[in-house]
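Tokenised fold entry reproduced for absentees:

. . .
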Amino acid sequence: MIFPYEPDDTFIIHGTRYSCIRQTDALCVFEPKDPADGNTRTLSRTEISFLRRSNNWRYIPGPRTKERMCATASRGTKALQSAHPDDRASAIFAYMECMNLKTFHDARAVTLTKESLEENWPRIVGAFRANEEIRNVGDGPTRGGSSLPPQRKSHAPETLLKLYRKLRKNKYDPSVFLPRYRVRKGEGRRFCQETEGFISENIRAYATLEQDTKSSVARQTRNALLEENNRRAELGQRPLQVPSERTIERRIDFLDPFEVAVYRDGIDQARMDFGVSSGGLDLLFDSAPRRGVGSRERS
């Protein structure tokens, strides 16, 4: 995907201010802001990538570009920041692929059908890989705040089409590609960070003076999640996944028993309940006479 420039963007090339008046996948045409600075300049994308690595290029985004960048950054930022690094990298990669397809679709070079994507697939993948190579060496516009692994394979045409439709349906929010939960080896089912935090905060009610039962706390936690999802639905936010009461009870089982006893019965009673009595030292005395070291037996 080629990063689109706006007419009000400013480019300082070798000390001269320019604006981009025309751009394609292969080149850009720059016109001086001041007519006295000379004629227009035509630079290929390769020449621009080399200029970016030097001190002879400076890009100043205009108002429209800043507005577009802020709107893009505000969508799904919190969810992406709190996501697992592997999930975040996969979501950003899928988002970049979809935006690359959007560029071709906006230019009317392809239609959103499997046949059209398969016919133009070499061009689509070629443009995406060329842009990713620039991004990963650090001289191109980054999205998501980090470089993407260059060895990651592109999605198939049919899969990319489904991803693009899903992204467009969710107003181009990249967080839509994040999984609802993770499964880690040896730990069982894990939900997203917001759901995990909500569960952890509510199951603390088990370690209180009220001494509620596990089933009662699990039921209250699940009902609180349902109420939170109703509030999110009114605000148009993404709902949290609601686990079963048995899952919440298993989370309660992972609480520290000593800490629960401290909250319920007090520190003194908890120490008595969890303390290990040694029973004192058992000293055994032999009735046989003892001789000192080096002493001789008298005859």
